[in-house]
Protein 1
Amino acid sequence: MTTELMRDRLRWLARAAEAYALAEALHDREAKQAMFKIALMYEHIAARTEAVLAMSAGRAVDDDPVTAP
């Protein structure tokens, strides 16, 4: 299961990178902002996956690794 979760984390990070690239190519301000929000959501999902991996390995993690100081 850990390998599967890691693959999922990498998949979400890849989707975030694709969304950022698409957002950069857009000219419409609202569409660009929407794509940036989607990219951030993908990063959030990847971070949550990272947290699950850390907890399964017995490490302590913050509630949200993306926004943790």
Note: The chain has a mean pLDDT of 84.
Protein 2
Amino acid sequence: METNSDVNTVDIESNNNSNDNAYNNNCIKYKMYVSEGVGWIGSVLVLIPYVVPFNKTIDFVLNTLGASGLFVVCATSRQYQSVIINAAWIVGGIYKYFS
């Protein structure tokens, strides 16, 4: 009888672990999709001012938001070269806008 209670306990624990693993896998996939989405949106926002002529303010906003999105994606994926270039893009855009 003790063996059956041990088996049931193990089964319940293994079911909980598999549910936790499935939940963790879903969270990882969700974070990956969100990160990819932020990266693509950032890329598009940076490229739009090169195609469409905007005034200085809209150009500044699009470039800053786009570079910020790319900065976040690169920082979370530890791509430090891209982090540096996007940080410089943000700072340069702010300097250019306010000077």
Note: The two ends are 81 Å apart (CA to CA).
Protein 3
Amino acid sequence: MTKVRRVDWAAVRAARANLRRLAREHPELTTKPSEANRRGWEHDLETMMADETNDKQMVLRLPSALLDRLDAYAERLRHEMPGPSWKRSDVVRMLLARALDETEPKKGKR
């Protein structure tokens, strides 16, 4: 016999309220999807999910305040986009890739 799971309606209401808040704070998320947006997400996911056999290890020291900010951002991603585990290393890779994309010269522009 299968066990019946009860719906946690309080959690459903909280999740819906969170989605409404996100839509108010980020109206760009409620617009029609664009090709550039999709490509950006694909790039970020590919960067995060890169084949680990090709990854090189790097060790660095960070101030506690910066680590706290990094962990807070990872926690926010876990709540806003459940699914990926959003480990600290994943978040560092994603943020580093975004920062480099923004600072590198655009291809085709001279």
Note: The two ends are 68 Å apart (CA to CA).
Protein 4
Amino acid sequence: MPFSTKATLIAFQADVEHYPCHAKLSIGDTVTFDGAELKGEMCPHVMPQIANALYTLFLAGPRYVNPGYYNLFWYACGSSADPSKECFDGNGWNPVNKEFVTSPYHVSCLQDPRAFRWPPNETRDVMKDVCIVCPDTRTAAVFKAEPYDLATAGSELPYTRREITILDRVNKAGGPFPINQILSLFSEKERLEIYPPLSPVIIGAMLEELEALHFIKLARGQVSATETGAARVALYKTEIPAGHAKALGLYD
């Protein structure tokens, strides 16, 4: 951590004509968490699930994968019982190699629409997104939760500032820079008298987070800033007091 996160209403999978959303939410509505505040309109009945997802992604960022993602079942077709096939698969199933057509608002609409397709998906993407479905299954609002930036407020802000500063120093160093020499980009005072103190293990963790957001590239023991990363540093200079940016050495 830290990451800023958001949940966006992306679909209604059930019958909103007869069972409209009583929170009066619309597709595209977003709730954000910047490390300190939840902002945006949220239905109280789905709030616990959304808050839990935003907290999980706040800690793990884009690296988080729902355990259900690993289930191979999503890429198998439909099946019917066939005891004669037990000698092959051990349990006795017959594959139904065709696409099932279900009626609108069938309970199967509540699952990931990419699951159980025939022919199977060419990519492994079922359950890859972190999604929350409203408990009112008559409406079944679907929210996609995702990280979108480093945290910009709250208790984890010191870590964000350290990561931005590392990103800035690496960018100024130019070209791929040896990871094991990053500490040399900081004075002893900068390393040890600013919270959190810099050490190889915390630098490694911070680089992992910066890479997850595509702010840097890591390869063969070296790190380089991306254009996206350089742009994020430039923007960050405008987001904090000028005195703070100067203290962090963000100005050339």
Note: DSSP finds seven helices and ten strands in the chain.
